[in-house]
Write a structure and sequence with these properties.
Radius of gyration: 27 Å
Helix content: 55-70%
Structural class: mainly alpha
CATH architecture of the largest domain: Up-down Bundle
Order of helices and strands: EHEHHEHHEEHEEHHHHHHHHEEHHHHHH
Shape: elongated
Strand order of the largest sheet: 4-6-7
Oligomer: single chain
Strand content: 5-15%
Length: about 500
């Protein structure tokens, strides 16, 4: 699949490039616009003082740079800012960041030579991933340090991850018949300046969040089947009475998921058509616990946040986020602050909180299954063996609880942790990349908790012998999980089973 890039990428297209082998190419119109922007800047900048072209950068902008040093100036910002520290970011984040950078440059507001965009696309399509250390960005002039590491490889320096090995960039370029970019006007600044790293991580986070959300729908449906819940908490009438798109959507998805289930109960049939005039106490709960009954409200708000975050990230991918903005359309250059990452930072903070709440929901549903005094239908810890001798998922619950607690701690908003730096030029910053990275940690935690939750769910299904009564949709998931983790009675090592379920959930 080839995606022709002209103006805007959707999250689905980004997913195709990241995970499904789709490749990028420039449209003729995009090439023309990039060339027009470059030619305009070349003529416009010949006799003017323009930030980042013939001045220093940041607080050094007060100093004019002599014409004979202008090429060196652009190389200097790349080399001087290649100062990241920590473990290298995963290839998937680097690839997503390069896609975001192409998305910015194709808007044709940067005045750069088209060779920059073409080489970035070659890196994306050929699986050449610059080495980018995790730490370095404050998210103010964008992701200066991380993007400098990308720029470093585009000029043929630094290291790249290629076919599973760390290698010198120059060697990989030569092996692929590629040439490093040349500096023409402002190529160094335009590559390093912007929000592409935080946007790339954010896009990956959203793709994974969508998977988590869909699995949470399935898990919540299964738990309600196990509990034989009355199904009217999912009714259209109930949920439409509260005017939130996400809640209505979740209720609809759960109704579809539970279609054909023989486990859930119909309140009209069970209670309204039978007055139970002689009944004083009901053995079966008329209203399940909140973690079962309030799923549309909880997951609905999470769905709405995911959708909002998708809109923000798609907008950022399609935005000119460097400085200055070079506008050949109006024949002018506009210095400003489009590199500031608050939109991504805020959205990642909100997404992080949403995913933590989703994790908390799973942990509470897990506790319902493990706690025999609460559910009243299962042995403690869904233990299918001998009570006292065997332990079921008791220790698995420890892991799920501690992991959920970690996510709660990580959910403190990072966007408010602004620390002035850069001689106070950057006196209020977004910490957008930190926000995106912490959100990814929370997402990984959610997969771990959901894996343990699903392991417990299928054990409960087997104890109750309701496999054949499940809805077709939930039965399919049960069968797929059982192919990964066979039913267990005796105690056995579980960490590999958890890993295998996580892989299933991420596929």
């Amino acid at each position: 699949m080839i995606i022709t890039l002209e103006r805007r990428l959707t999250l689905d297209e980004i997913r195709s490039i990241l995970y499904e082998g789709a490749t990028l190419m420039l449209s003729d119109k995009a090439k023309d616009n990039i060339n027009k922007s470059y030619e305009f800047l070349k003529s416009f900048s010949s006799d003017k003082v323009i930030y980042g072209i013939n001045t220093g950068f940041g607080p050094m902008a007060q100093y004019r740079v002599e014409d004979r040093f202008l090429r060196e100036l652009q190389y200097n910002i790349i080399r001087s800012h290649s100062t990241g520290a920590g473990e290298p970011l995963d290839d998937i984040f680097v690839k997503a960041a390069m896609i975001a950078r192409v998305g910015t440059l194709v808007q044709a507001y940067s005045g750069i030579h088209i060779s920059v965009v073409e080489l970035l696309i070659e890196f994306i399509n050929r699986g050449i991933y610059p080495k980018i250390p995790r730490h370095g960005s404050v998210g103010a002039s964008g992701d200066l340090v991380q993007l400098a590491h990308i720029a470093l490889t585009l000029i043929g320096e630094g290291e790249v991850h290629y076919k599973g090995e760390w290698r010198e960039t120059a060697e990989v370029l030569k092996e692929n018949g590629l040439e490093p970019i040349q500096i023409y006007i402002r190529e160094g600044l335009c590559i390093t300046n912007g929000t592409s790293m935080m946007s790339g991580i954010a896009a990956v986070n959203l793709i994974l969040s969508q998977k988590l959300f869909n699995h949470s729908i399935i898990a919540s449906s299964l738990v309600n089947e196990i509990a034989s819940s009355y199904d009217d908490f999912l009714s259209h009438e109930l949920n439409a009475a509260k005017h939130h798109e996400g809640q209505i959507f979740v209720a609809k998805k759960m109704r579809e998921t539970l279609e054909g289930s023989q486990c859930t109960l119909n309140r009209e049939k069970e209670l309204y058509d039978n007055s139970h005039s002689d009944t004083t106490t009901f053995g079966h709960k008329l209203q399940p616990y909140y973690s079962l009954r309030c799923v549309p409200q909880v997951l609905g708000s999470i769905y709405d946040e995911i959708q909002n975050a998708i809109n923000v990230v798609e907008n950022e991918y399609a935005s000119a986020c460097d400085n200055p903005i070079v506008d050949y359309r109006t024949q002018n250059v506009y210095p400003g602050g489009n590199f500031h990452g608050d939109y991504i930072s805020y959205e990642m903070d909100k997404l992080k909180i949403a995913i933590t709440k989703m994790t908390m929901l799973a942990e509470r549903q897990l506790n319902y299954l493990c706690h025999d005094k609460i559910n009243g239908i299962l042995p403690p810890f869904v233990n299918l063996g001998v009570l006292g001798l065997n332990y079921g998922v008791q220790a698995c619950q420890f892991t799920a609880t501690s992991t959920t607690a970690e996510s709660q701690t990580l959910s403190m908003p990072n966007s408010i942790h602004s620390i002035p730096n850069n001689n106070d030029n950057q006196d209020i910053v977004s910490m957008g990349t930190n926000s995106a990275e912490l959100t990814n940690m929370v997402i990984e935690n959610a997969f771990q908790v959901l894996a343990i939750h699903f392991m417990t769910i299928i054990q409960a299904v087997d104890y109750l012998k309701i496999h054949d009564r499940l809805a077709p949709s939930t039965r399919k998931v049960y069968n797929e999980l059982r192919a990964i983790v066979p039913v267990f009675v005796e105690d056995s090592i579980k960490y590999k089973d958890i890993e295998n379920i996580i892989s299933y959930l991420k596929r």
